[in-house]
């Protein structure tokens, strides 16, 4: 699998990442082992997790598989901290919490360091520079090799990245940001993506298949074995089952038929090759699904198909996001 630099750093990642959101809850150890081995054998390196996934079970499960199944040195492990299961305070970006959470993550993962550590969510109750200092301490102590943020707005990313760049050699520059991005969710193109491109921050799209809807599986009904039919994920999938999404899925399906590939391939190839994207992170349920997704490596969409998909999924961007003179 092709490797790409994450942002304006020396960190290289496979251009498709493996997500672990369901590990330890809906994905058991046997299926997780199959997924990780399949991913590694295909040349995949980036494995994304978080301390909040399965209340730590995803990290614990990944840690059990490292070395026994796949060499630690072959993986780029990414994890996150800051999202907490407290109904009174869903986010904690304090330096004390973040560093304690990182230590707990390392214990569950069974490793001395993570390759990429994210602030999972912006915390409006904590000064941003305090949260960012936790990233600096993690990198300077060797517990993390690179730093990132996720689920941020454009101004938050710009502020964080600029703050880090203001003291080179003292503060660690942001390597990446993980954000939801797909043909069904192009909101990052308003402000986050322009900021990331300008500041050299690589984009790691989550839910690149529109929470599974872009595969076409929901065109006529909700399959009983799909995430859209599960108690945990039905509310997650539901927003993308409207008429607007249906038109986009129809266009993806038409393109797939013309190229003799699947809608999954078309949707994944489109997001993989968007400007600023380093690696979409996919969350396959089993090795068969993952193998199908990884076979997109050989597909490059023709320009005319990319333009057609751009048009049918184009978000409404007006003042002040576009040049005022074109409005």
Keywords:
8-stranded parallel β-sheet, 11 helices, 327 residues
Q: What do these coordinates show?
A:
The protein is of the alpha/beta class. Helices cover 37% and strands 16% of the residues. The chain is built from 11 helices and 12 strands. Strands 11-10-9-8-5-4-3-12 form an 8-stranded parallel sheet, with helices on one face. A two-stranded antiparallel ribbon has the order 1-2. Strands 6-7 form a two-stranded antiparallel ribbon. Helix 1 packs parallel to helix 10 and helix 8 (243-259) crosses helix 9 (263-272). The mean pLDDT is 94.
Topology:
Blueprint: E1 3-5, E2 12-14, E3 17-19, H1 29-41, E4 46-48, H2 57-65, E5 76-81, E6 83-86, E7 89-91, H3 95-109, E8 114-119, H4 128-140, E9 144-150, H5 154-165, E10 174-180, H6 192-199, E11 202-206, H7 234-237, H8 243-259, H9 263-272, E12 281-282, H10 287-294, H11 303-313
Parallel strand pairs: 3-4, 3-12, 4-5, 5-8, 8-9, 9-10, 10-11
Antiparallel strand pairs: 1-2, 6-7
Helix pairs in contact: 1-10, 2-3, 3-4, 5-6, 8-9, 8-11
